[in-house]
Design a protein that fits this description.
The chain is built from twelve helices and ten strands. The protein is of the alpha/beta class. The strands form two sheets. The protein has an eight-stranded parallel barrel with strand order 1-2-3-4-5-8-9-10, surrounded by ten helices. β9 (204-206), α9 and β10 form a beta-alpha-beta unit. α2 (27-39) runs parallel beside α4, α2 (27-39) packs across α12 and α7 runs parallel beside α8 (189-199). It binds 1,3-dihydroxyacetonephosphate.
């Protein structure tokens, strides 16, 4: 059964570790992530962007697939199915479809509008027992064709949104989606510390987990980050392993073209990436 991310993140914040949100793209992704979380006895959050939602034939298809897998694979660890960077309309659709968690990304609206829309969704999610993530300060980089500039959030605005009663808060601190450029200035820990002080117990979310050096991840967790989103890194690992398989001519040997064989190295690569992240985030054994 899917669960809200509330309990797992409350425990993570109190226990000074973070739960990984791993974005899914298809059945192989979902299966690889769920099996790894179960293997390491870690809670896990499956992230679905609106683009990936369309690709996977809509939110109800995804809810059916994930619920089916939890049952058929005997997954016992807490699993939250979460809309990533949802629009206002997208959040409603996911709530309707049976997601257990949604993000409403109102960071591109003026703060008053972000507050009004977030407030409305807080009430609805509370009523339905779902977790809600809000965002202040756009995360840079490109995601689903949306390019953000990588703002640094205003700690007072973070406090205003946190006080609405959201479950977790994503605050831009110089993090970006996708690979980091060579001249990246790093995470802004001064601002993170200030936000942390203002929002108290509220679990903070770090987007753009791909390519952030380990020491920065650990420092961010020590300053109140309890959820870390990873997407691109699994895609890169999958693509590299698949490329290696094809370049070695394995798809031409025997039944190597069978998708169950062709996609197997990529799935193993996703599992290895997820294992590394769960170890780094400290959530193994916390289910
Ligand atoms: P990356 O693709 O950089 O890992 O970011 C993932 C993310 O933040 C999803 O919201």
């Amino acid at each position: 059964m899917l669960v809200s991310a509330k309990e797992m993140l409350k425990k993570a914040k109190a226990g000074h570790y973070a739960v990984g949100q791993f974005n899914i793209n298809n059945l192989e992704w979902t299966k690889s992530i769920l099996l790894t979380a179960e293997e390491l006895k870690s809670p896990v959050i499956l992230g679905v962007s609106e683009g990936a939602g369309k690709y996977m034939c809509g939110y109800t298809t995804i809810v059916g697939m994930v619920n089916g897998m939890i049952k058929e694979l005997g997954i016992t660890v807490p699993v939250a199915l979460h809309l990533d960077h949802g629009s206002y309309e997208g959040a409603y659709k996911c709530i309707e479809a049976g997601f257990s968690s949604v993000m409403f990304d109102g960071s591109h609206y003026p703060i008053e509008e972000n507050i009004a829309k977030t407030r409305e969704l807080v009430a609805l999610c509370e009523q339905k027992g779902l977790s809600l993530e809000a965002e202040v300060g756009a995360i840079g980089g490109e995601e689903d064709g949306v390019v953000g500039g990588g703002e640094v959030a205003d700690p007072d605005e973070c406090k205003m949104i946190a006080d609405l009663g959201v479950t977790m808060l994503a605050a831009g601190i110089g993090n970006i989606h996708g690979k980091y450029p060579a001249n990246w200035a790093g995470l802004n820990f001064e601002v993170l510390e200030e936000i942390s002080k203002k929002v108290g117990d509220m679990p903070l979310v770090l987007h753009g987990g791909t390519g952030i050096p380990e020491d920065m991840i650990k420092k961010a967790i020590s300053l109140g980050v309890s959820k870390i989103n990873v997407n691109t890194e699994c895609q890169l690992a999958f693509a590299a392993a698949t490329r290696k398989y094809v370049e070695a001519g394995k798809d031409l040997e025997g039944k190597g073209f069978d998708p169950r064989k062709l996609l197997a190295p990529g799935c193993e690569a996703i599992k290895e990436t997820v294992r590394e992240k769960i170890a780094l985030f400290g959530s193994a054994g916390k289910a």
